[in-house]
């Protein structure tokens, strides 16, 4: 990447458009990444949020467009996709139907973006890994779908934040044509909880050492033998 390209990427905003079936966690995903709390209820039409990707330096301005799950067969979908740098297809890994409908979502989105001048990056996000024990979508099916349409696949939890930052940062970097920073294996929420838990643990005195030198051991043995009671 040339210096000119680097200069052009500085200050440029990146638009994410999140699509998928209702109740897959798209809104929660956006709000978690932007530092907000949990959300409830369904999105109507589309909700547009602004924020920044602080994992990159300088921070990159972001626009997140959370598209309602009932928008698939409406003419408004084209408007919501306009100007997108990244289209993220979100499914619930505990809901097989939410994954099976992605084929219809992808074909509709691909048709729209192919007619436009801008060709966004498209990727998958399997949400609700905190409910992995309830998984209904086979990993092999996801891999086949991603391979067929040449999509990068991410998975994580909008509830716990697992892999949320990594996903957004990686896609922002790809959209700008720059290298993404190394991902931390730890979640920021988990780290904060660990620090708080550690601060409540009482400090214990160091345990006595059980190691002694030979001279002290012989002295201890002599004292023990001299204190043996005689049989009456």
How would you describe this protein?
The chain is of the alpha/beta class and about 230 residues long. The chain has a single domain (about 5-190), classed as Rossmann fold (3-Layer(aba) Sandwich). Helix content is about 40%, strand content about 15%. The chain is built from 9 helices and 6 strands; from the N terminus they run H-E-H-E-E-H-E-H-H-E-H-E-H-H-H. The chain has helices at about 5-10, 25-35, 75-80, 95-100, 100-115, 140-150, 165-175, 190-200, 215-225; strands spanning about 15-20, 45-55, 60-65, 85-90, 120-125, 150-155. The chain has a 6-stranded mixed beta sheet, with helices on both faces. Strand 2 and strand 3 form a beta hairpin.
Strand order of the largest sheet: 2-3-1-4-5-6
The CATH superfamily is identified as P-loop containing nucleotide triphosphate hydrolases
| Alpha-beta content class | alpha/beta
- The CATH architecture classification is 3-Layer(aba) Sandwich
CATH topology-level fold name = Rossmann fold
**Helix content range:** 25-40%
Beta-strand share of residues = 15-25%
- Give the CA-based shape: globular
C-alpha Rg (nearest Å): 28 Å
Could you give a short account of the major beta sheet? Answer: 6 strands, mixed
Number of contiguous helices? 9
What's the number of structural domains? 1
The average pLDDT is 82
Secondary-structure element sequence?
HEHEEHEHHEHEHHH
């Amino acid at each position: 990447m040339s210096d000119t390209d680097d200069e052009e990427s500085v200050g440029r905003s990146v638009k994410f458009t999140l699509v998928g079936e209702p109740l897959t966690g798209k809104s929660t995903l956006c709000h978690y990444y932007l530092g907000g709390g949990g959300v409830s209820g369904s999105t109507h039409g589309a909700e547009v949020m602004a924020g920044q990707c602080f994992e990159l330096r300088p921070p990159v301005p972001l626009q997140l467009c959370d598209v309602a799950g009932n928008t698939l067969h409406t003419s408004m979908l084209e408007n919501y996709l306009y100007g997108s740098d990244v289209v993220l297809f979100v499914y619930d890994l505990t809901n097989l139907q939410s994954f099976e409908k992605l084929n219809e979502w992808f074909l509709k989105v691909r048709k729209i973006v192919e007619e436009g001048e801008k060709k966004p990056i498209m990727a998958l996000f399997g949400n609700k890994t905190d409910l992995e024990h309830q998984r209904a979508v086979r990993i092999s099916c996801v891999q086949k779908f991603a391979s067929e349409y040449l999509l990068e696949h991410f998975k994580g939890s909008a509830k716990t934040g697992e892999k949320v930052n990594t996903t957004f940062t990686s896609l922002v970097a790809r959209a700008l044509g720059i290298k993404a920073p190394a991902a931390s294996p730890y979640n920021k929420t988990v780290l904060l909880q660990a620090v708080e838990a550690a601060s409540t643990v009482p400090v214990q005195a160091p345990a006595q050492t059980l190691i002694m030198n030979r001279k002290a051991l012989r002295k201890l043995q002599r004292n023990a033998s001299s204190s043996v009671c005689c049989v009456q």
